[in-house]
Specification:
- By secondary structure, this protein is an alpha+beta fold.
- The protein folds into two domains: about 5-170, Thermophilic metalloprotease (M29) (Thermophilic metalloprotease-like); about 195-365, no CATH class.
- About 30% of the residues lie in helices and about 25% in strands.
- It contains twelve helices and 20 strands.
- The strands form four sheets. It has an eight-stranded antiparallel beta sheet with strand order 14-13-10-6-5-18-19-20.
- The longest helix is centred in the middle third of the chain and has 19 residues, at about 170-190.
Length: about 375
């Protein structure tokens, strides 16, 4: 039976997030598990006058790839992928896994080689997005693997995901426009600031953001959304940050991560679990040890950590920081095949200073 909530979500993705226009070439990529949402998105793209281009994949193939591929295959980037990166106008990614831990025992060095090989294509994707030549949005399709990670039943997780996307309200697009307006006020204030300092348990970190732009994340790239971010000056990050939540990346979990920075570069990295994977990823390339993004989560309808970065980085009352590639629209210039978001809870005593004045305390902006 058709679930009308997925029809509403498809409407948001196609007509709000990426605003498909007549004759747009629209890549729809996702797991076969997301078929109900793929069908709705495919239909909505056609209604909008676009040309849907489907890239279907099977999650179990990733394990086969890393187990079997030789070095020359790990370093290979398909010219078809390069061509698509240059030609598509809109990209809609629908994520669903059979097993989110399938790559836990995979050699991290192999994953780092493959990630490094994709750096050029990833950088070009971000470049086209920043230039307004391409629009992208990604969302999670509720599936058992992610529900288990979140320690919910599938029905509970489905409700959690769809409510976070605001498809339970009468007009979801209008609701996301209200989010845009509220966050735009915060971004305008932060765009006047130069130096940011973050203080929390195990954390005292400073960075220079002068001349960089704070980006309003209002459902145009992630769904659900709810964050504001910028790209710090690449050599300016100094101090230490301890992340209160597990850092999840490429199907792996790393617990109790602490990073120490000097002149913008990670000079020390510790973890209670998964340290080898952390270090291997930081050594992927020259840019992997620098900060590409600093952000504040603003979606207060998301309060539960689910081991899914799409939701966890948006938790109202948290910050997150990504090592690796900058998002060029912020003015950041760091290049890497890595972009790894790590989340820290600020709701119990966390403070953010801007140019020496408190602008954020205990998970909320002072001027919001």
């Amino acid at each position: 039976m058709r679930d009308e909530r997925y029809a509403k979500l498809a409407d948001v993705l196609v007509n709000y997030s990426v605003t498909v226009q007549k004759n747009d070439l629209v890549e729809i990529n996702g797991s076969h598990l997301a078929e109900p949402l793929i069908r709705e998105v495919y239909s909505e793209v056609l209604k909008a006058g676009g040309h849907p281009y489907l890239r279907l994949h099977f999650p179990s193939l990733a394990k086969i790839y890393f187990r079997t591929a030789k070095q020359h295959q790990l370093k290979y980037v398909s010219p078809i992928t390069e061509f698509a990166t240059e030609k598509v106008d809109k990209v809609i990614s629908l994520w669903a896994d059979e097993n989110t831990k399938a790559l836990t025992t995979t050699d991290p060095k192999k994953m780092a080689v493959a990630g490094g090989a994709r750096q050029k294509v990833f950088a070009r994707f971000l470049e086209r997005e920043a230039a307004g030549e391409l629009k992208w949005v990604g969302t999670q399709f509720p599936c058992n693997a992610s529900a288990q990670d979140a320690e919910m039943s599938l029905d509970e997780y489905e409700d959690f995901v769809l409510r976070a996307c605001m498809v339970h309200v009468k007009d979801p697009i209008a609701a996301w426009r209200r989010v845009h307006n509220k966050q735009e006020k915060i971004c305008k204030i932060l765009n006047t600031k130069k130096k940011i300092r973050v203080v929390a348990k195990g954390t005292d970190l400073t960075m220079n953001v002068a001349g960089r732009k704070w980006i309003n994340c209002d459902g145009g790239a992630n769904m659900p959304d709810g964050e504001i971010f910028t790209g710090p000056i690449e050599d300016s990050v100094e101090g230490k940050i301890s992340f209160s939540f597990p850092a999840c990346y490429a199907g792996r979990e790393v617990h109790n991560v602490t990073l120490t920075f000097k002149k913008g570069k990670v000079v020390k990295a510790t973890a209670g679990k998964g340290r080898d994977f952390l270090l291997a990823t930081l050594d992927t390339d020259e840019g992997a040890r620098r900060v590409g993004e600093f952000a504040v989560g603003t979606n207060y309808s998301i309060q539960t950590f689910t081991k899914n970065t799409l939701f966890d980085e948006k938790i109202g009352g948290t910050i997150h920081m990504a090592v690796g590639a900058s998002l060029p629209e912020s003015g950041g210039t760091n290049m890497s095949g890595v972009h790894w978001d790590m989340v820290n809870d600020m709701r119990d005593g966390g403070v953010i200073y801007a140019d020496g004045k408190v602008i954020y305390r205990n998970g909320k902006f002072a001027f919001a």
